[in-house]
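Researcher: We're teaching a course module on how sequence relates to structure. For the next exercise, students receive a sequence and then see the predicted structure as tokens, so they can try to spot secondary structure elements on their own. Here is the exercise chain.
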Amino acid sequence: MITVSVKWQKELFQAVEIDTSQPAYVFKCQLYDLTGVPPERQKIMVKGGLLKDDADWSTLGVKQGQKLMMMGTADEIIKAPEKGPVFMEDLPEEEQVVALGHSAGLFNLGNTCYMNSTVQCLHSVPELKSALIQYSHSGRSNEVDQTSHMLTIATRDLFNELDKSVKPVAPMQFWMVLRKKYPQFGQLHNGVFMQQDAEECWTQLLYTLSQSLSSTGSSSLTSSYMTFTCSEDPDTMKALFGIELVSRVHCQESGEESSETESVYSLKCHISQEVNHLHEGLKHALKSELEKASPSLGRSAIYLKESRINGLPRYLTVQFVRFFWKRESNQKAKILRKVDYPLELDIYDLCSDDLRKKLEAPRKILRDEEGKKLGLKASEKSSGSKDNDVKMSDAEGSSNRSGEPSIATSEEGVPSDSGTQMTGIYDLVAVLTHKGRSADSGHYVAWVKQESGKWIEFDDDSPIAQREEDITKLSGGGDWHMAYICMYKARVLPK
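Model: And here is the predicted structure for the students to work with:
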């Protein structure tokens, strides 16, 4: 890291840091934040001519304290006539953010699309943003290591910057701290940062935030939606993303049987020739074989593990297991098979018997409410009836544009604040896609549903509006973008 000054027009910017391990384009993104001059318009004089985006700092001879000259025109806001029409560009930046209707894009700092798409998906969770704001007041706990604390702060600051900016944001600080916490994201190949796996970035970031936010005691965030979730402790990340699984482990050879419970942050969708739909892939993934020592047989034996969901999160994350290690080429290969996924996901039949019983009453209320809209009488079947199950088609349209239930009020019409109940029905709110043949190459993009109900494709620094009917077409079967991670939001009822 070296420090330089930059002369631009009549201004002199002192103590501008250059990370010489990063491409020169990253430095240009920093100057964009300072001057408003987009990287493509910047002309920076260095040894040998103008600074190129992919220039290697080690060959340029830039020294500590050196003054660099930059030329280029900043983006200008054109002022409207006093009594003429008001365009968005003429509004103050905070009003532009509101008018834009979505957060800013993120500059690619050199194969960082995996990170950008992860950040955009998680940034769409308002409860997570609230927890991070609270973390700024509570500070670091003694139980949280320094790098986890720094990454949590960097995440909070990046989320805030995305919310306040109409221009693309350069996630410099976040990326530097992420690489410090998890060095694998700083791997280089021929002097260039390598593409990384977005699922690994997603998992590591959630793990870090779970360490930090669980120590703040932010029970106020979880008290309103703890019913039927995986834990009764005030753990923000578990309430938001944690899935409790209960498993039956059985050895057919010896007859031995045991049960296990575990908490995970995502469900897996296994892909095979028999899997054409997400629901089928989830069912396959909840069954597995493992080899372990059998006390009665005195040797290793094969056990069948069958899992069921016993606790639900507010946001359900699903990973399509598309990548596998190909021995002959010694690299990750990709399963391109098309696997359809719904805008509304009902996981009732994947739940344990205990959880199903808890879900029956809320699902009956949800079904009856939909029936009223269609002019039908309320169901007279007993709550224990199998026909009481609410299918996805029955629940269709029961949520408003933000995914919240349309009946989240008491009989007097007053919103309930005594907690919520899960229904086992989820609405799609984000999709992280991958385009390419290998996890170590290709391109990642985030597709995120806004509070207005509109979908935005976040392709690094270029947010593009999309139609909802096009979101489920990202299901694979070719070389186009295909779903790698889907995030669903629970449809809940007042307690």
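Model: If you want an answer key for the exercise: The first strand starts at residue 2 and ends at 8. Confidence is low (pLDDT under 50) at residues 217-233, 380-418.
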